[in-house]
Amino acid sequence: MERHDSSTARTPTNSLVVKRRTKSRSYRQSYQSCFGAGSRLGLTPALTARRFNTSRRAPKSRNITDKVNAEQLALLVKTEWQLSYVTPLYRFRHTQLKSYSRQLSAFIAAEKQQGLAVEVEGPQGGVRVSFSVVQGMVEAVDDAETVLIQIHSKPLFARQDEPQKSVWSGWLTCINGNPDYLHSLPEDFVCLPLFCSSGPENLTTVVKSWFQQNFDCYFGPLEISHTSLQWLVALWTNCHTESSIQHLKMIWTLPVAPPLQITYTVNPQDAWELWSSVRKNPQEENKAGKEVEEDSIDIEEVMSFIQMLKSHFYRHFRLDLSAGSLNQVSTALGSAKYSGRIKISNSKYMITTLTLLTECALLKMPI
Predict the structure, then answer these.
(1) Rounded to an integer, what distance in angstroms lies between the CA atom of residue 363 and that of residue 358?
(2) Residue 115, exposed/middle/buried by CB under 10 A (0-12, 13-18, 19+)?
(3) What is the pLDDT of residue 244?
(4) Percent of the chain whose pLDDT exceeds 70
(5) Which of 24, 117, 136, 207 pairs with 127 at a CA distance of 20 to 30 A?
(6) Cα separation of 274 and 295, whole Å?
(7) pLDDT digit string (tens) for 172-231?
(8) What is the dihedral of CA 16, 91, 170, 203, to 10 degrees?
């Protein structure tokens, strides 16, 4: 995978030259004050300054297979990922990925030698790390290129000629990041706010620790909120006429003792017809003096759709889902859980999903 390292990989222009050292230093100190050992993320006032978008583009089928490496794309869409957010990386350079591969390999070997619980089998020093650029996923001029990290190792009793196998994967990305926030960063910071990992948790911890030590950043858990899950219900249902969603499955939890978990599966055509009934007609809205983009979906449509789904369920089972919370949603296009696990099953709509998740991660950023 290291063949994808490229000196032409794009780091946004506001990260190429280190000039504003004073501003950078104060910015780094603001991280330490926001995220120091004695602080709590939820108590940081800066994190509440931005708001979730109330309107977003309707998803369109995008064939990215001709732009993204097939091997990398297959890994991204076949795996369930655990999400985290990460603050901007200080002096991270896309042109130094081969060096980062060697450094992280040495760091993992040192952690293992010290007897720390690093789940990597095989002989000492038998770990190989590869950093690579996932080219072809940049959507906006301010987005940094996506970076894929893989850790390879041989099983403990493998034959000498047996190749190493991937034991952990992770990637950092920024898709359609908020330009106002990205422009506000000092020149020597790169913003890749969405971190996706798959593999042993202690390896994830080691990788995060290495990033934090080398790039003065902070990682935190990224849940997919009740509102974000409702957006995914609408966005994925909107794709049904182009790519069948096959089913719309939701898992709700009602606050009773003990908690009641309800699995609610909707026929895809029924879901589509319900969604179509709440979609606004741009021409009628414009006549009423409201500006509506033809390819946009707003929060009112999403809430109306969810309310109709709840009403439909109540008519049949006399259970009011409004008292509960949406914890999981899945279709043939992907699945998402409140706990921060996501699986993208169709590459044609992954940009839409990653745009939403990037926004969720950026809402955690300090100002």
Answers:
(1) 9
(2) exposed
(3) 95
(4) 77
(5) 136
(6) 18
(7) 999 999 999 999 999 999 999 999 999 999 999 999 999 999 999 999 999 999 999 999
(8) 170
